[in-house]
Amino acid sequence: MDFSSTKIIKKTCPIRQLGTGAAHHFFGYYNKTPWHQTQPYVLANQYGSMDADLTPDQVAAVGYFDVSDNDSFHKIGETSTWNWQMGCQLQWLDGATGNKVIFNVRAASSDGHYPSFGALIHDIDTNETTSLAHPVYSVAPDSSYAITVDYRRLYVTHETIGYSEDRGRATDLPLCPADDGLRRIDLPTGETRLLVSYDQLKSFHHRASMDKAIHWISHAEINPSSSRILFLHRWTERVEDETCFLHRLITVNADGSGMRLLECSDHPLPQLQENFDPNAVGTYDYEKSEYQISHPFWKDDDHIIVWGPHADAIHYHLYQDKDGGSVDIVGQGLLTENGHMSYSPTNQRWLLTDTYPDSQTSIRKLLIYDTEKDVAYDIGDFYTSDLKKVSRCDLHPRWNRTGSQVCIDSVHEGQRQMYVVDVSAIVGE
Fold first, then answer.
1. How far apart are CA 96 and CA 160, in angstroms?
2. What is the DSSP string of 140-185?
3. What is the mean pLDDT of the chain?
4. Rounded to 5, what percent of the chain is helix, strand, coil?
5. Where do the structural domains in the chain lie, given as residue ranges?
């Protein structure tokens, strides 16, 4: 990204750390907001280390900061089912009555399809908790259902977003099963059903590269009206090297019908040669691949923004969720690196994103792009220490409910903490 461009404006914004003390805090991914709809609460996970290698016995506190009470941290539960990238999928149930959150936990006696993991729904007002026999990935905005995948499979294929098990890394997972894939969980009843199987995905616009590969689903998200789901279908013959991952962006109705292929980045893989050394791949090489499809986000019910290739060029692309729908470049010449992007919840003129660390300076950038004026605001430089790939700390910027503040996770001050950036001076212009 050319930060000398006259269309990239350096803008200093007020920033502060949430909370104090020796404990580390983080939230997780870019596609969920930690802020409550009306209360001054910000969800967070709390842990005693900033970069531990995760095992099933490491317990993180689950809770929220009350920003109206000196950022006091209120613990509501614990979990040993989490990772540094996505946490425990902690999220508000916006469509439910009262003040409820949902998060993943370890569930040794679960009767679900994934016997090591489940989820809890916690009512902050009554302190009551409801157990679910399956973990969650994303919750529908109306809170009627959630979607999930097998986190054991993710731990094998994409460890940074999977969960470890007591028995270690699974070695008996089928490559492309017909009885697993994307599942739907009815939140009031806990009942589940399979929406799309891996076997279905392999048959859907089949590619020869799928035949010997292990398949998985990630980055699943539900549109604002809760009617349609996006996800990334990925497959590979070499899980040790993420540059060998192949990608497709797919959408489907909430009942599993109407599956649609929006993009596919299947391409030849010289890395599959016997003499290729996956250890030679840098920590961020995968995120900077010219074939990567990553970080999709629903702009509205009918459009998805994603970083990925289309028509032989990689950009931020805005897809119309329609057969033969339009594909438009966003921020051409300005937004030239992979990042975690989201539109303001109140004014879609503004697109929030970040960058991965610069290879020379280890600096990550925080950016807001003005889609009307075609100008990018560079609002923060954040140094990252040399963490492992699985324990790295991406900024993962998230808007508050009014689009006036941004929350990030960062290690630039030597701890893993959450920070709030006031961007009202930019978006209020």
1. 30
2. -TTSSEEEE--HHHHHHH-GGGS---TT-S-----SS-SS-EEEEE
3. 93
4. 5, 40, 55
5. 29-347
Report the run of H or E that residue 424 belongs to, with start and end.
Answer: helix 424-427
Residue appearing with tokens 């629903």: 298
Contacts of 299 by beta carbon, 8 Å cutoff, 6+ apart: 305, 318, 343, 348
User: Residue 294: CA atoms inside 13 Å, Cβ hemisphere, count?
Assistant: 20
Distances (CA, A) of 331 to 289, 303, 318, 371, 376: 19, 16, 10, 7, 8
Pairing of strands 303-310, 327-330: unpaired
Residues in the chain: 429
State pTM to two decimals: 0.94
Return the higher-pLDDT residue of 80 and 108: 80
Q: Are 172 and 135 in contact (CB under 8 A)?
A: no
CB 184 within 8 A of CB 222: no
Question: What residue type is 93 in one-letter code?
Answer: L
Domain 29-347: give its CATH code: 2.120.10
With bands split at pLDDT 50, 70 and 90, how would you rate the model's confidence at 54? Answer: confident
How is residue 200 annotated by DSSP?
Answer: H
